[in-house]
Amino acid sequence: MSYKLQFAELLPYWNVLLQGLIFTIVLTVVSTVAGIAVGTAGASARTFGPVWLGRIVAVYVELIRNTPFIVQLFFIFFGLPALGLKLSETTAAFLAMVINLGAYSTEIIRAGIEAVPKGHIEAGLSLAMTKWEVLRRIVLNQAFRKIYPALSSQIIIVMLGSAVVSQISAEDLTYAANFVASRNFRNFEVYLLAALAYLVLAMLTRSLLRALGRVIFKAR
Amino acid sequence: MLQFSFWDILSNLLIATQWTIVLSLIAFVCGGIVGLALLFMRTSRIPALEWFTKVYIEFFQGTPLLMQLFLFFFGIALFGFEVSPWTAATLALTFWTSAFLTEVWRGCVESIPKGQWEASSSLALSYIEQMRYVILPQASRIAVAPTVGFSVQVIKGTALASIIGFVELTKAGTMLNNATFRPFLVYSLVALIYFCLCFPLSWWAKKIEGRLNVAR
């Protein structure tokens, strides 16, 4: 048996796929920014906050890190309406992504914070800096510098994981690919194209983050 | 109409959990074997082999696991073979796992001091012998913690097999939800079962990692 791949049949659907790609990019960018904000707050709460708050954050982190993203997504999209909180598929997708990345980045940033020598914090405080100034200028500044590579790869992992949001019919690249496959039955071609798009996106994100890192964390 | 009690739901989920465990074990063991072969290729210093493994790893780490599942599911069918979700899931998860394990293990191999390579090659050991008797015994000690840590990712990865129709824990949850209309309960239980599978492994990985740091 020989089968000829027919990529030409995908051409009429280029705008569907492009829209999906754009949704995936927006989803990634928004959830990265919000997720890192959650992570920074979580990590600060865990290291400097009161004990009870730290415990809550720890439970959140472990719950998210030890369950699959798809189950978190289903829980938010199908489970929460039972409690009266109804979300659209797009909102649910964004929320799930932020919660997911928030947990992972909490753990990553916490590792960075713990690597900051205690003497630096004491030195900052003895210079009459307030607690917030010490946190922002001394602790987080150094922590982010250290954990930037780990955070970058987590962002890429989350971006690839976002393919799953198609399962609650949020209209990302995978959803678009499913849609096209359901129309022209060229399953393999469209999934191969989508996979390559993700691959290019992952490589671009990586080099972009590396360049960004060089700008933000200029050599001391 | 059939009624589902709490225990019906839980027992059905637990039955499906067995398939999650079986799929995770197969993916992890097969992925480990393929990963080890790739590790030898990746560190062989033969350009063609290194290049091949680099492309392989880039592809499997740079595309969503879901896409890989789709590609195996629909791709093999093009050659005229009947593909069950079971075959597609096993293959995709094996290749995906092997790509990540190879990268993890390569890091461990590269952390072995260069002098070990030089000393063993000056003793006229071949490349395979160097790996077998000198490098891997040392590298494997460092590799245990990240490998156990990655096994958590494999268990979570098997949840995606539900999308191509493999009935494991997540798929069973979806089916039970469709039958009972109690999504909150069902997905809470599903998440809880995953947590019970993954948390001990995460905890163990962290513990081994801590022990290694003390030894240093």
How does this structure look, described?
The complex is a heterodimer of chains A (220) and B (216). With 220 residues, chain A is an all-alpha fold. Chain A has one domain: Orthogonal Bundle (MetI-like fold), CATH 1.10.3720. Helices cover 77% and strands 0% of the residues of chain A. Chain A is built from 8 helices and no strands. Chain B is an all-alpha fold. Chain B has one domain: MetI-like (MetI-like fold), CATH 1.10.3720.10. In chain B, helix 1 packs antiparallel against helix 2, helix 1 packs antiparallel against helix 6 and helix 4 packs across helix 6. Chains A and B meet through helix 2, helix 3, helix 6 and helix 8 of A and helix 2, helix 3, helix 6, helix 7 and helix 8 of B.
Secondary-structure arrangement, i.e. CATH architecture of chain B: Orthogonal Bundle
- Global geometry of chain A: elongated
Overall average pLDDT of chain B: 92
CATH level 3 topology of chain B: MetI-like fold
The secondary-structure class of chain A comes to mainly alpha
Report the top-level CATH class of chain A.
Mainly Alpha
Query: What is the residue-averaged pLDDT of chain A?
Result: 92
Class based on secondary structure composition and strand pairing of chain B: mainly alpha
Structurally, the number of domains of chain B stands at 1
- In CATH, the homologous superfamily of chain A goes by the name MetI-like
**From N to C, what is the helix and strand string of chain B?**
HHHHHHHH
Low-pLDDT stretches of chain A are: none
Uncertain regions spanning at least 5 consecutive residues of chain B: none
Taking the sheet with the most strands of chain B, its summary is: none
Number of strands of chain B: 0
Shape of chain B: flat
**Strand tally of chain A, please?**
0
